[in-house]
Hints:
This protein has helices at 22-25, 46-53, 71-84, 95-107, 115-119, 182-200, 208-224, 234-247, 261-273, 277-291, 297-308, 315-332, 349-358, 372-381, and strands at 11-14, 31-35, 58-62, 88-93, 130-134, 146-151, 156-161, 169-172, 363-364, 370-371. By secondary structure, it is an alpha/beta fold. The protein folds into 2 domains: 11-175, Rossmann fold, CATH 3.40.50; 182-381, Dehydroquinate synthase-like, alpha domain, CATH 1.20.1090.10. The strands form 3 sheets. A 6-stranded parallel sheet has the order 1-8-5-4-2-3, with helices on one face. Helix 6 (182-200) crosses helix 8 and helix 9 crosses helix 10 (277-291). The model has no long low-confidence stretch (mean pLDDT 96).
Amino acid sequence: MFNFTYANNTVIHFGTEQIAKLKSAITKGQKVLLAYGGGSIKNNGVYQQVLDALSKHEVVEFSGIEPNPSYETTMKAVELVKKESVDFILAVGGGSVIDGCKFIAAAAKFDGEPWDILAKNAPVKDAVPLGVVLTLPATGSESNSFAVVSKLATKDKFAFGSPKVQPLFAVLDPSVMASLPERQLTNGIVDAYVHIMEQYLTYDVNAKVQDRFAEGLLLTLIEEGPKVFDNADNEIRANIMWSATMALNGLIGVGVPQDWSTHGIGHEITALYGLDHAQTLAIILPRMMWEMRAEKQDKLLQYAERVWQITDGDNEQCIKLAIEKTEAFFRSVKMGTRFSDYQLGYEVVEPLVAQLERHQQVAMGETKAVTLPRSRSIITESL
């Protein structure tokens, strides 16, 4: 196991009716920017609960943060934060809203061109404090310090991270999932699953605690994920929501190598073709696993045995079956796993490879073994 230092300073308020905690979670007298997406929170009761909890605060609203939040939209919010002298940002939504608010928080205090935070990894020295009311469990952004933002004008999609944008608190009420459309539930389950895999499916460093945590989360998503579409049991939602948070709050990633090459290719698919983030991950991960089967053999066999109880057959047969079961799980939660599921074909290959090269994503993964030719092969095999 590698050396590590770990802290997670986000306070979690988990359970039903926890939105009321906003009243005390945000300091009295602070002017709050209430930021959200397309307005679904006004139909499911979350918006009114938030306003009731903030009845003693001055609230400024900003709506319209897109799935895959854009630089263009978030910069409009930055202008509002500055104009209104906002003291606190409250993100109410899923990962896209939260990621957008992290960038807003950083850009509002940035001395220089805010795009440099994304494109040039300019350090974030200060940020407006922020908190979260989570409505869609998926990205884990509610309790980590990372975000991804796109620039529509240039079709660029970049990530950034800073402790300055770590949410001070996150409210996780699983009952709000009852009103989510099928597509968002699907995205959330798959997104969480692949987040776990990118921290787990690398090479063995004898990190038994992290491995067992990761396997437990995967098994929970496999067990509960397909049930969430037809079952009103709030405990199912609770287990999925908590799994998604635990998938990317840093805990299972400490002391172990990580491989974010599936995300690297996925981001380019979203940037060029507009697919949802989780959709891109479900397309790429199975072929990434197969392409990297030699380098990842030990962990793939461990995954096959511990998660899917596969022990019969030679190494390659076990790995192949584990990948097939992974893809079948994605389909069981109503997720497509091929470009063809989205009416895309061979025309995507070269533009995606060119985009990876333009962004210098030519040696990805924990050992830098995902080269440009291998990325081309993975994309082609995913058609």
